[in-house]
# Entry
Amino acid sequence: MQTAGRSDANMYAALFAGFADRLDHRCIIDATGEVITYGEVDRRSAQVASALRSLGVDQGDRVALHADKSPEALITYLGVVRAGAVFLPLNPAYRADEVAYFLHDAEPAVAIGRPTDRGWFDNVAADAGVRHVHHLGCDGDGSWAELIAIASADDDAPPIPTAPDDLATIVYTSGTTGRSKGAMLSHRNLISNGRALQQIWRFDLNDVLIHALPIFHVHGLYIATHTAMLTGIPMLFHRTFDSAAVLASLSKATVLMGVPTMYTRLLGESSLDTAACGAMRLFISGSAPLSADTFREFSTRTGHTILERYGMTETGMNTSNPCDGERKAGTVGLPLPGVSVRVTHDGKVVATGEVGDVQVRGPNVLRGYWRRPDKDAEEFTADGWFKTGDVGMFDDDGYLELVGRSKDLVISGGYNVYPKEIELLLDEVPGVIESAIIGLAHPDFGEVVTAVLVIEPGTEIDTAALIAHLKTRLASFKVPKTIHVIDELPRNAMGKVRKNLLRDRFS
Ligand code: MLC
Ligand code: AMP
# Structure
């Protein structure tokens, strides 16, 4: 690829600059054993960009991908950004109704689904007016792979020059109203965050990253992939998180990024010890709170202090414990270079040690919500700070401690679940008068989704059948693991359900 004279405001061009002199080196070492070099990634992402051009996809058009994790899926992302189009990643666990919502809202020009979902995906996409529907299987099969294979890989696909604030991706995040909203992330958002993390986590050419996260969320797609590619190092690509397989990779790698559930599962492996981690230099955790127990036990068993960081879909990473300085358990560390974080109460910045709303400003913060100016007005302060919905405080050393959330949110195994979306579905069920979704502590997922129902007097609910029904409508991580039936939901004077009382009662 030639970049001379091209704007490197395009995210792909920025990545390319990181690995340009490493084209013969390994980029993806797939779980299947396939090794894909940086040069090959560059060539194949050029083919994706050519294929998109052949379909008439223009700069700014959306391309949705609802596929299993695979090198082809990652290369599709790179090709979309390279083409100046906007990548729309969708969790393959999403069911038809969920996918329908995203496709109607984002109006992509291309939607790529799994061959196994053809039975419904194609209808849903057609109904949403998508012009081009393709399929990508986990073995790199399907019509999308065929289209790419015949596309040209010549230098006709240099990254389309984009302005820094042009959209690179839309990532949907649920909301308190039950309606998901698309966070619009620009090329600048992604590049600035990737570079800041590469610097503070001290990535260098000796590193090898274990990539065991899903690639439809900020953590696995942007944070993990970008830091590796900006450095030009190999990624050991795990299609799913299997703790034994990840443990076996530790001897060949130096950095692991994971959600807390992945660390508790690794601790469940009896052979996790200092020797197994001998080659590793850094374990990073985020997306959900890391418990003090996990932090301590991991240190005792392996001699490594997990580095915890804090981010969001809307902002990428905001704060991180340091690589060199003290990593404090129960804190999410210091603001990233270029990122400002403040804690406020009633519109005023509070003193160190005082709790308040966490707000963020910087080049990492989203441009806004896709076609939701109402949400932009709600989620930003008048002076331009993004309201995270997290509650926290700074300690005397400037480390941020998160103590709670002002948003009604359950984080299960690193996935966010907004209660309203599930409550709305439950309230439609015959016999259910009202419902409340709460998060209860869970040893594996940190928190799990739990439903509390009030039902018509004299009726009964078959909870197993209800869970089975919900699984046809929702990705399974959102489906309540347990359902309780009670006579009445406790409410405050304003009529708001007192979920803390429900949590106390059922925990
Ligand atoms: C899977 N299940 C879950 C679940 N993951 N249930 C609740 N919460 C979850 N997170 C369901 C499965 O569908 C299955 O249901 C049952 O639980 C057991 O599944 P499993 O085989 O044990 O799960 P597994 O496939 O191993 O997945 C667990 C996991 C995964 C931890 C590896 O959840 C995961 O990859 N989490 C990471 C999410 C992530 O990347 N978040 C980052 C968001 S970005 P059944 O009924 O079918 O048996 C972000 C910003 C930031 O937050 O700061 O990073
Ligand atoms: P998401 O919307 O999936 O991007 O999730 C973002 C939310 O995850 C944040 O607003 C926090 O509530 C939570 N989060 C991310 N990292 C951490 C962390 N290290 N500790 C506690 N909560 C976290």
Remarks:
- The chain has 15 helices and 26 strands.
- Residues 5-9+37-187 form a domain with the Rossmann fold fold (CATH 3.40.50.980).
- The two ends are 56 Å apart (CA to CA).
- The first helix runs from residue 11 to 19.
